[in-house]
Amino acid sequence: MDVYYQYMGTNEETMRETFKDTSMKSVDARLMLEAIAKAENLVISDEDLDAEVIKYGESYGVDGKTMLDMIQEDDVLFEVNTAKVSAEIPSPVAGKVVEILYKEGDTVAVGTVVAIIDLDGEESSGTEPVSEGVVREEADAGQVAANVSETSPSSPSSAETAKNESANTASKPVVAEEERWYSPVVIQLAREAKIPKEELDAIQGTGYEGRLSKKDIKDYIEKKKRGGSVEPKPASVVAAPAASKTSVAVSSEQASPKVAPVAMPGVEVKEMDRVRRIIADHMVMSKKVSPHVTNVVEVDVTKLVRWREKNKDAFFRREGVRLTYMPVITEAVAKALAAYPQVNVSVDGYNILFKKHINVGIAVSLNDGNLIVPVVHDADHLNLNGLAVAIDSLALKARDNKLMPEDIDGGTFTITNFGTFKSLFGTPIINQPQVAILGVGYIEKKPAVVETPEGDTIAIRHKMYLSLSYDHRVVDGMLGGNFLHFIADYLENWKG
Question: What percent of the chain has pLDDT over 70?
Answer without folding.
Answer: 68
